[in-house]
Amino acid sequence: FVPIAEKTGDIRELTRWVIERVLADRAAIAATTANPVVFVNISAELISDEGFAHWLLDRLGPLDGAIGIEITETAVLAN
Fold this sequence. Notes:
This protein is of the alpha+beta class. The chain is about 65% helix and about 15% strand. The protein has 5 helices and 2 strands, in the order H-H-E-H-H-E-H. It has helices at about 1-10, 10-30, 45, 50-60, 75-79; strands at about 40, 65-70. The protein has a two-stranded parallel sheet. The protein starts with a helix and ends with a helix. About 10% of the residues are buried.
């Protein structure tokens, strides 16, 4: 479904939803146990989107390395 979301332009909203869900889940886990580090795959379609990049940095900035970003393999292979 990710290639379809990239093709239709829905990847941005899908990724924003995933990031928000990860932030909420991570906060819930951190409140009860260890301070987990979580990684999220990001489409290369979004890496070059300056508006998305600023949004992502604003959301993740205060977490100081608690969430990592990985670029999807298909994006690397395509470029």
